[in-house]
UniProtKB/TrEMBL annotation:
Signal peptide: 1-29
Keyword annotations of the record: Signal
PANTHER family from the UniProt entry: BCDNA.GH03377, OXIDOREDUCTASE FAMILY PROTEIN
Organism: Coprobacter secundus subsp. similis
Gene Ontology terms for molecular function: nucleotide binding
Database matches in InterPro entries: Gfo/Idh/MocA-like_OxRdtase_N, Gfo/Idh/MocA_oxidrdct_glycsds, Gfo/Idh/MocA_OxRdtase_bact_C, NAD(P)-bd_dom_sf
Residues in Gfo/Idh/MocA-like oxidoreductase bacterial type C-terminal domain copies: 214-437
Protein name: Oxidoreductase
Domain Gfo/Idh/MocA-like oxidoreductase N-terminal, chain residue ranges per copy: 47-175
Pfam families listed in its UniProt record: GFO_IDH_MocA, GFO_IDH_MocA_C2
Length: 439
């Protein structure tokens, strides 16, 4: 396949406002080489997808993928039987209502799902500490991957996942759906086209970092394999139902899995919402695939909050701004823009989208899920490839390391190493529980 952009790809990117924002790796190597396992090229071929991790987010993702005509969801995997049963019932109910014959198999062990040669791609929506191991295994098994954000739990894991995607010529789409939302695409375009002039400060409101684990120990329920849930984590992390929530009367998770809020299991709001809003900030200022050079905890910041400094003089902070919503405010010499989900505000009408209703509600022309499916066929990188997911995840993790050490950190984003800082370097990864390994 030619690496040149064809008309269909151009129109797809144009609809998202991305033709002027193509990343360097898309310019030089936009096509992912076709391997013997990449054979979904005929329009009538169905793309068979398996889901790994069947919690609340997976149910949301399933509802999006299942409506794509060329997709068939043929497998699901989870370590908790109530999550497997819910997923199976909902998928089967949908296909039955559509009059579509579809065989759905369920698994406890993701390795069994990956071993199936008829599965073309996987959607991974597990807790963050399982992302790297599963996604790397999927790449080596010849599967394309839709991976929820944040990309990985550690920076080292992200580095290894980038290698796995490229060495195995896989398509990987990160679940950073804001990159496919019109308000955020417009925000990135306004900044990168120079309308705001020189950027000085970006205020990203994402929330605080993780906290010590303090939930009470509870008995592991029947039907949940807690050892498999832990995966590479130490067995010192004991079970509480909030980590893997039960279902309410309507079949919904009682809450978002609380593992994300605790040190050692998740990155708090820094990685949960930072993977959205810090991501938009880096995208807007052209730092995809790169990152900050200095990270300041609140105690060392002139803004009294987590602060990232870039080599171009721009600073990005974690702090609230007018309105109090999760989002990002970008300030330049010519004015400012402020973008949250479903809302776009600006210091001047000239920065606003040309068409906007009173509620400022937007719909993207090409859904994030559809972009992934289109890229499986075209073998071209999606709008959030693995390198973007890694650099966005890295800035979040750097923030948490600065919180933990409570001192300024110097970072080289080119070689992805701390500058003369052995203590910080130890936090690029952690020791996996045996026999888990990335090798």
């Amino acid at each position: 396949m030619s690496s040149k952009m064809n008309r269909k790809d151009f129109l797809r990117l144009s609809a998202l406002g991305l033709t002027s924002l193509i990343a360097p790796w898309q310019v030089s190597a936009a096509s992912v080489p076709t391997s013997a396992k990449s054979k979904k090229t005929e329009i009538n071929d169905k793309i068979n997808i398996g889901f790994i991790g069947l919690g609340q987010q997976a149910i949301h993702l399933m509802a999006g993928f299942i409506t794509i005509p060329e997709v068939r969801i043929v497998a699901g995997c989870d370590v908790y039987d109530i999550k497997r049963d819910r997923f199976k019932n909902r998928v089967n109910k949908y296909y039955a209502a559509q009059g579509i014959k579809n065989k759905l198999d369920m698994y406890i062990h993701y390795e069994e799902l990956l071993a199936r040669k008829d599965i073309d791609a996987v959607v991974i929506a597990t807790p963050d500490h399982q992302h790297a191991i599963m996604a790397i295994a999927a790449c080596r098994a010849g599967k394309d991957v839709y991976l929820e954000k944040p990309l990985t739990f550690t920076i080292y894991e992200g580095q290894q996942l980038v290698k796995a995607v490229r060495e195995n010529t896989r398509i990987l789409q990160v679940g950073s759906m804001q990159r496919s939302m019109d308000e955020f695409v417009h925000a990135a375009n306004i900044v990168r086209e120079g309308a705001l002039g020189k950027i000085s400060l970006m205020k990203a409101h994402v929330g605080e970092g993780p906290k010590p684990y303090n939930l009470p120990r509870q008995e592991v329920p029947k039907g949940l394999d807690w050892d498999l849930w832990l995966g590479p984590l130490d067995t010192k992390w004991y079970y509480n139902h909030e980590l893997n929530p039960l279902l309410d009367a309507d079949g919904r998770d009682e809450c978002w899995g609380a593992w994300r809020w605790y040190q050692g299991m998740g990155g708090g709001y820094t990685t949960d919402w930072g993977a959205h809003m810090f991501d938009i900030g880096q995208w807007a200022i052209g730092k995809d695939g790169s990152g900050p050079v200095e990270i300041l905890p609140p105690s060392a910041s002139p803004y009294d909050c987590l602060t990232f400094r870039y080599d171009n003089g721009i600073e990005m902070t974690q702090q609230k701004f007018d309105g109090g919503k999760l989002g990002i405010k970008i300030i330049g010499e010519n004015g400012w823009i402020q973008v949250c989900r479903g809302e776009f505000l600006a210091s001047s009408p000239e920065f606003m989208p040309k068409k906007v209703d009173e509620k400022a509600v937007y719909e993207t022309n090409v859904p994030h899920y559809q972009i992934f499916i289109d890229c499986i066929r075209s073998r071209r990188d999606p709008n959030v490839p693995v390198e973007v997911g890694h650099s966005s995840c890295t800035v979040c993790t750097l923030g948490n390391i600065a919180y933990e050490l409570d001192r300024p950190l110097q970072w080289n984003p080119i070689v992805q190493k701390f500058v003369d800082d052995a203590e910080a370097t130890k936090r690029l990864h952690y020791d996996y529980r045996k026999p888990y390994t990335l090798d």
